[in-house]
Amino acid sequence: MAERTILITGGSGMLAGRLKAHFSSQPHTTVLTPGRAELDITDEDAVLAAVRDLAPTVVINTAALLVEPCEADPREAFRINAWGPRNLALACAENEAALVQISSGGLFGDEVRPYNEYDPVVLKTEYARSKFAGEEQVRAICPWHFILRLGWLYGGGLDGRRDFVAARLEEAKGKDVLESAKDKFGSPVCAADVAELLDRLMEAGAFGLYHVAGAGGCSRAEYVAAILAAAGLSARVEPVDSSSFPRRAGVPACEILESWNLGYAGIPGLPDWRESLGAYVRHLVGGKA
Ligand SMILES: NC(=O)c1ccc[n+]([C@@H]2O[C@H](COP(=O)([O-])OP(=O)(O)OC[C@H]3O[C@@H](n4cnc5c(N)ncnc54)[C@H](OP(=O)(O)O)[C@@H]3O)[C@@H](O)[C@H]2O)c1
Hints:
single chain; globular
């Protein structure tokens, strides 16, 4: 296998941590994970210099402004989520590096059904609009791109990174009942699974757009119930209307994903979402994540 250097932007983030753990354990692979202070993707000169000097084979862009801050500051949302990928795409195109753009499954609407790569986007939030704009920059500028739209991401572990699953286990401590939304649907996906699937796509050189999530879908309430059950906790979930959790962003009702492109590329999709979730929760509870 040829030597490869992987540059992961947004290096202090949750997904970046898991990507680093995966790729660092692979042979012939050097992994570089600058955080925002070392490499701000909105700084075009710094991005060009970094890609020129570090000569990565692949750049993985995990850096992003997430949902609520995007709604609060749309100008900043597009600066980070659209202009940042544009800078990276220019630098990768100039230096013949591949670019992996991490995008989101939250680009669709309220109809509850699985969405594939050929469904038209709906773009209900500033986050969705800015992430889709970032995809378009990457598609237009860098011919060697992978765009991964992720489902509901978890898997940061116990090392202090933000993680939905760890947060629910923490919330359940000393409680009999947890409220969770019955009218928001999605497909949970484990960050470690994202890393493995991305590695297979890179190995196959299968550039393109992919929906990446555990197979199947669930409501947020079913997701939380599965977390508690996997941890062996007796707390129960009360399914409630999402209006119980007021948010600035009008997120879509449905983020259930399926992938047609993985099938066309001959790459196996991820197992049922419950499988990886169960394994991850057991690791967390055992303190091994
Ligand atoms: N979390 C989810 O449920 C989910 C679902 C689908 C897709 N995604 C996508 O997955 C990716 C990773 O998400 P995550 O959950 O790992 O988020 P995260 O933990 O917030 O990581 C994102 C990182 O990007 C950094 N960052 C922000 N602006 C930057 C800039 N201008 N230059 C360089 N770094 C910058 C942040 O640093 P600071 O904290 O210092 O600002 C943060 O460390 C994102 O692209 C996100 O859109 C996430």
